[in-house]
Amino acid sequence: GLTTRLQNVFSKLRGKGKVSDEDVAEAMREVRLALLEADVNFKVVKEFISKVKEKAVGKEVMESFTPGMVIIDIVNRELTELMGGTQSKLAKATKPPTVIMMVGLQGAGKTTTSGKLARMLQKQNHRPLLVAGDIYRPAAIKQLQVLGEQIKVPVFSMGDQTSPVEIARQALQEAKTNNNDYVIIDTAGRLHIDEALMDELRQIHELTNPDEVLLVVDAMTGQDAVNVAENFNNQLQLTGVVLTKLDGDTRGGAALSVKAVTGCPIKFATLGEKLDALEVFHPERMASRILGMGDMLSLIEKAQLNIDEDKAKEMERKMRNAEFTFEDFLEQMDQVKKLGPLDQIMDMLPGMGKMKQTQNLQVDDKQVGRIEAIVHSMTVQEKQHPEVINHSRRKRIAAGSGTSVAEVNRLIKQFDEMRRMMKQFSDMMDPKSAKGGKN
Ligand code: GDP
Ligand code: MG
């Protein structure tokens, strides 16, 4: 899938101390292919790649401590930006009820999502009213009624002989009478867009003047979904998108294209058939998911709670100036240990699991104890200038720490690698990069 492909591209970049223009070009070629293969709209891909390239070829990136990481960070930010940048809230009418109109192709998930939204609003102490506006699909009214019963939300319906426009009109009156502060209108879909349906939807739109027109898009449909979105947007001014079926084996194409094509933010995502399987859509989390960054955001939140920011800044400065010593290393280890068991933390870092295997980088807590013992057996001079540690010193350090010369060798060899890893932590502690903001 997309995630695996991107991870492969980035694992090549990540370890590099130096990145050439050719490396960047090569990586971008692969990112481009990965996106196209994930069925992302080609125009969107083209623009995305050119934006990333523009930012990635700068002198600052090439001369940074870990150019590979910086480029991944740029891709992450641009992906986030592509999906809207930040979380988007539901609009609210100044005078209730707030009217939400659900539109989309047949089978996209309009009816189920209507139920889920009602459930979410009800949990927030609102009084939603569901409106059965699909009079065409057999059993569509019944489907909404069943959902309404499950969550104890009233469903307004008038059978299948009254026009949906009239149903919507009477539903608004009903909401006023019963003090419903949200009205969610479920509408009919077709397998393909047709004029009669669009006409009906436009009339409902005109009559109810909805605060939200949410296009429900099946995330599994890729580029097709985007063409649909463009079409709906031209007819009805969409205000947002709900991406459904993200629990399935989606290729990610719809998520990445739909905001760029319609200009409408993705407001919600659904991840299952159950009524509580609705989530507020967070572009930065989706970007992390696509990049295979696992639970990185929660780690960053944790890091921000636990790490002394001044110390982290000082460390970063030292690393940038290549002043980072074994003493700093020990202190950094202490900070990182506050986050939790090390092996878990490593697994949360992008690509780190892989690096652990390929570089034989042992980072469990027991191993850290031995590493600390080795460093404690060094003299101040050795800690500050590791290059003086010759063979006889290594033997002494091994004996002093109860370890072996091989282990001491390994640690010193890995010191560079560790520095890179620590740099990654300090990048994450940097509030600018953590929030995915712009450079
Ligand atoms: P509508 O025609 O747009 O009203 O679509 P429905 O709400 O009837 O949903 C169509 C099918 O998709 C139903 O079987 C739903 O249970 C299913 N569905 C909707 N949302 C999700 C989701 O987030 N995940 C999964 N796995 N199935 C979903
Ligand atoms: Mg339906």
UniProtKB/TrEMBL annotation:
Pfam families attached to this UniProt entry: SRP54, SRP54_N, SRP_SPB
Keywords: Coiled coil, Cytoplasm, GTP-binding, Hydrolase, Nucleotide-binding, Ribonucleoprotein, RNA-binding, Signal recognition particle
Main subcellular location: cytoplasm
Annotated GO biological process: SRP-dependent cotranslational protein targeting to membrane
Sequence ranges assigned to domain Signal recognition particle SRP54 helical bundle in this UniProt record: 1-83
Domain SRP54-type proteins GTP-binding, residue spans: 97-292
Annotated compartments: Cytoplasm
GO cellular component, one term: signal recognition particle
Coiled coil (residue ranges): 305-332
EC top class named in words: hydrolase
Record's catalysed reaction(s): GTP + H2O = GDP + phosphate + H(+)
SMART domains in the cross-refs: AAA, SRP54, SRP54_N
Gene3D superfamilies referenced in this protein's UniProt entry, alphabetically: P-loop containing nucleotide triphosphate hydrolases, Signal recognition particle SRP54, nucleotide-binding domain, Signal recognition particle, SRP54 subunit, M-domain
GO molecular function, one term: GTPase activity
Family assignment from sequence similarity: Belongs to the GTP-binding SRP family. SRP54 subfamily.
Subunit structure: Part of the signal recognition particle protein translocation system, which is composed of SRP and FtsY.
Name of the protein in question: Signal recognition particle protein
Gene: ffh
